[in-house]
Amino acid sequence: ENYLKIGEFPALLEPDAIEAASLGRITINQLHTAYELYKLKSLPENDPEIEKQYRLMVKRRLLKVHKEDLSGCETKEERKILLDEIWAELFEKYKLVLKKK
User: Fold this and answer.
1) Nearest-angstrom CA–CA distance, 94 and 71
2) Among 31, 81, 41, 38, which Cα is nearest to 61's?
3) Could you report the average pLDDT of every consecutive run of 10 residues in the chain (101 residues)?
4) pTM as predicted
């Protein structure tokens, strides 16, 4: 099968991301975007468990990227809601990019 199985959603390790971005002459954020788009494109349709693994992989990165914004939340629930909003906005952008091919 040509798609990834559960648990095969490791985040890019920072040293690997830095090296790859340097070789490709792109920013680390651009590299992460390309990696996440590649993973999203390879997802099988209608597999909630694999979709969850993908979503968690991206959210782990978003936690780091938006650490300052999320630390301004007073409760864990507020942080979760804000992270969900950030995720939903990014996911919509990713879907638009993949539709344009």
Assistant:
1) 25
2) 31
3) 52 84 92 93 89 93 94 96 97 94 60
4) 0.82
